[in-house]
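INTERNAL AUDIT FORM
Audit reference: QA-55
Scope: verify that the stored structure record matches its stored sequence.
Auditor: D.O.
Record contents follow.
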Amino acid sequence: MQIGILEPNDFSKKAIKLLKDIGDVSYFDGGDINIFLSNKNILFVRLNYYIGREFLQYCKVLRCICTPTTGLNHLDIDACYKKNIKVISLKGETEFLSTIRATPEHTFGLVMSLLRFYNNSFLTNNNREWNRDKYKGGALYGRQIGSVGFGRVGHILAKYFQSFDAIVYYYDIDKNKQEMFGAIKLETMQKVIEKSEIIILSASYTDSESVIFTEYFIDLLKDKYFINTSRGELVNEEYLLKKISQNHFLGVALDVIQNEQVDNNLDRFLNLVSKYNLILTPHISGATYTSMHRTEDFISEKLISVYNL
């Protein structure tokens, strides 16, 4: 069994030990990726590569792709299916994921960063002005928060916000999502946006889903804060860029954009950072040593279980 780790930097030592018990483990070192892929039966990936048809043509004997992620938009699932390649991921692993807190913690941090202008107020050699009046921000206490999507991340965020005496409203396409941690369910996404000052997109994403934040809903965000730590594909990105440049929002924080691996709008977003209350982070919401090691361990154990290895 040939097992390849495509992005081996800081990969869990425990997971590597588990994988070495079932096969030969090798690590991609930046050489010829086509040669690396040619004899791999199992491949571990993160988010730096898009695994599509072009990529898969070099995978001659690949049986399984392991990805310690919930979102799968870095994979062409249909192409994998046609080549009989199984995908093992964190999708649907509700019990385990309830103990992984990196994404809600980062999302909470982005909310606070927007409210307190941390993007500009941290002093450095290039920003030496000791002027507290210049960076007066807002408090979280009593704020009305809107969550579009009320799954694992939404639940945990509601708990965090409850501790700060903020009010949380949520909308989820799953009508069975129950109220908890003081969060209040509303019937439509429009009502959540209208009731809230801070709107967080924390919905899950699959290839079959279309844009959630269309032009209509982005227009409703006038003079509000918008945070997306879900997936960039759920937002009309062209229109979002346009409205940021028109100073439509009080603040925007994005941990995700569309087409993160290639041909994306990163430069266009970066050109707006210094002009507006805009924060960009490079899809790091789930990227802590603890969370990544634990998810790599979990996926390795799941692989062994699925194949009875």
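Auditor finding: record pair retrieved intact. The mean pLDDT is 95.
Action required: none
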